[in-house]
Amino acid sequence: MESKAKLLGHPIHQILIVFPLGLLGMAVIFDVLRVAAGWALGTTVFHMIAAGVVAGLVAAVFGLVDWSAIPGSTRAKGVGARHGLGNVVVVVLFLASWWLRRDDPANPPSTAFVLSLLGGGLALVTGWLGGELVNRLGVGVDDGAHLDAPSSLSGRPARSSER
């Protein structure tokens, strides 16, 4: 099932998700280093969480566009719903963590740390669900995709009459 929101022939949601995953994932790693090794990364984590939450919200818009096009009677619709709703919870957990840090980003309360760990752990699950959608269920994949498909910039369909 092809994505409904594309940029230069590629699904926008799949392009954008690397930003919240990278930012929020590294925020968790830096938070662990801050707590475990005493590294002065609190302010960095604060800004990474803010950027990751914004990026996650932008990516969610395009994910919702793609999810709305999945037929309702399919396994993909349910997996997509769990993926999307789980990511809403991820964003809320990180937003709460960010909110608790705002008064003193360099020295956040332990609750902020716990929330970032929970958000990071849940993001691993929702990321796996996203992979299940694309890799197993073919959501967001060009209908004619194959190993010798022409470039998405060529203007030609991926489907080949020689296949």
UniProtKB/TrEMBL annotation:
<dbReference type="InterPro" id="IPR019251">
    <property type="entry name" value="DUF2231_TM"/>
</dbReference>
<feature type="domain" description="DUF2231">
    <location>
        <begin position="9"/>
        <end position="142"/>
    </location>
</feature>
<keyword id="KW-1133">Transmembrane helix</keyword>
<feature type="transmembrane region" description="Helical">
    <location>
        <begin position="112"/>
        <end position="130"/>
    </location>
</feature>
<feature type="transmembrane region" description="Helical">
    <location>
        <begin position="45"/>
        <end position="67"/>
    </location>
</feature>
<protein>
    <recommendedName>
        <fullName>DUF2231 domain-containing protein</fullName>
    </recommendedName>
</protein>
<feature type="transmembrane region" description="Helical">
    <location>
        <begin position="79"/>
        <end position="100"/>
    </location>
</feature>
<keyword id="KW-0812">Transmembrane</keyword>
<dbReference type="Pfam" id="PF09990">
    <property type="entry name" value="DUF2231"/>
</dbReference>
<feature type="transmembrane region" description="Helical">
    <location>
        <begin position="12"/>
        <end position="33"/>
    </location>
</feature>
<keyword id="KW-0472">Membrane</keyword>
